[in-house]
Amino acid sequence: MPPPPALPAVPPEGLDEGAWLDVIQRMDEVYSQLVRDEIALEEKNAALEQSQQFIFSLLSAMSDVLVACDAQGRIEETNAALRTLVGRGEAALRGHPLDDLLVGGPDGAHGARLRRAMAEAVDSAVGSVAEVDLRDAQGQAVPVDFNCTPRIDAQGRRAGHVFVGRPLGELKRAYHQLREAHEALKRTQAQLLHSEKMASLGRLVAGVAHELNNPISFVLGNVHALKRYTERLSQYLGLLHGGSDGTTLAQARQRLRIDHTLADLGSLMAGTLEGAQRTADIVHGLKRFSAVDREERQPVDLAAVVERAIHWVRKGTAPSFDIVFTPPDDGRGCTVSGSPGQLLQVMMNLIQNAADAVASLPAADTQAAAARGEPALRITLTRSADQARLQFLDRGPGIAPEHLSRLFDPFFTTKPVGKGTGLGLSISYGIVERHGGRLQAAHAAPQGALFTVELPLAAPTGVPAGADPSGPIPAASPTPPAFPTIPDPSP
């Protein structure tokens, strides 16, 4: 701004000096106000330019296409994504109807969809959606999912519409990738579940060898006896059909002990069949436990499953593990609806974890507890009106407070490297949850861990099917001396 004009040294005629000074003061005030107004105008212009640059950078950075139209559908503004898609510059698009960019033009089906979306957006605060095909730079159809919203001017009147959309090809590719990732995750989850089941099965190999050894040895011994009996009977039948006299036959009958052989054949065959059936039951149970579960549900005797799990763990990795199981004393049992193989896996995981925890204690602590008559693991099964509750209380080192919240997380384990996969409790938690129950863990003061399994009882249907998931069940352990009572941690 130029400096103010120089004032005459002598006041104009007719004005005294005071009036002249007042005029000068007024001119200074006006000039100062002009300076302030110009500074404010420059600041507002700078802010406006900054705001325009910010909006331009946003429009340029958008990967979605954007078109702003007036009330008649003529293009007023576009962003770089749309111009790149249709292969036209800003000047070539401004003022042209948006319908011209559609496949089929204004009179086609896509033009009708666009006009319908514009009409619906007038009465909707959130706008409307239209899927239309735009012509790209090569003239090919590109499906775009447009969201149309009304554009309001400074007076609150509708000035046009804003269309924001994304080419559906990108969405379809993203959805396809998401679906592939989901399928891969499902396959991995199934593989992890099966791997953990096979790992549990692997821990039983030693027990299986011992379990199968007795019936197979029994059958083998009986078969050798049958072979000797067959040779004796063949010799005797040879003499009989060869026309030997009565004296010779009587002597041969006594020498070959034919009467003893005939008397022993019945029990020999019965014992052989019993051993073969026992072997078949064991193999059948192992196959059912190792097979991929088909989610088949049936009534299951929970006490029988627990006893079978105790039997397998003792036969496998912990033959001297001191376990006491107390089933309900009312004689009614606890029948739940579920998969015998999956429930057996849960019980075996909990028992095996307890055995590993107790094994980590110093031998002096274990011997002292045994001298006090405390079992290494006490399993208690109780029932209420509608649910069964299993509590596994061990006398191991317990659970650290910082581990309680992560105990059922996949791959979390406190065992040394190579001793645990961190999947047993996580998979057990999922199995119990799928059966409509819950699995909880708590530190049992002064020492030990308490795991609680709650499962809904099945409706009474008589004798439960699938009571034995893998063959005959050995007798339960006798009731031990009293064990300290632990408060129930469940809410």
Structure notes:
The protein is 49% helix and 16% strand. It is an alpha+beta fold. It has three domains: 62-172, PAS domain (Beta-Lactamase); 203-289; 294-456, Histidine kinase-like ATPase, C-terminal domain (Heat Shock Protein 90, 2-Layer Sandwich), CATH 3.30.565.10. The strands form three sheets. A five-stranded antiparallel beta sheet has the order 2-1-5-4-3. The protein has a five-stranded mixed beta sheet with strand order 7-9-10-12-11. Strand 1 (65-70) and strand 2 (75-78) form a beta hairpin. It is elongated, with a radius of gyration of 45 Å. Residues 462-491 have low confidence and may be disordered. Residues 471-491 have a biased composition (Pro residues). It catalyses: ATP + protein L-histidine = ADP + protein N-phospho-L-histidine. Residues 207-459 form the Histidine kinase domain. Its EC number is 2.7.13.3.
Structure described in brief:
The protein has 13 helices and 12 strands. It is α+β, with helices and mostly antiparallel strands. It has 3 domains: about 60-170, Beta-Lactamase, CATH 3.30.450.20; about 205-290; about 295-455, Heat Shock Protein 90, CATH 3.30.565.
Spell out the blueprint of helices and strands.
Layout: H1 17-61, E1 65-70, E2 75-78, H2 80-86, H3 90-93, H4 109-122, E3 128-135, E4 141-152, E5 158-167, H5 168-202, H6 205-241, H7 246-255, H8 258-290, E6 298-301, H9 302-315, E7 323-326, E8 335-338, H10 340-359, H11 363-371, E9 377-383, E10 387-394, H12 401-404, H13 424-434, E11 438-443, E12 449-456
Parallel strand pairs: 7-9
Antiparallel strand pairs: 1-2, 1-5, 3-4, 4-5, 6-8, 9-10, 10-12, 11-12
Helix pairs in contact: 6-8, 6-9, 9-10, 10-13
Domain Histidine kinase: 207-459
Catalytic activity: ATP + protein L-histidine = ADP + protein N-phospho-L-histidine
Biased composition (Pro residues): 471-491
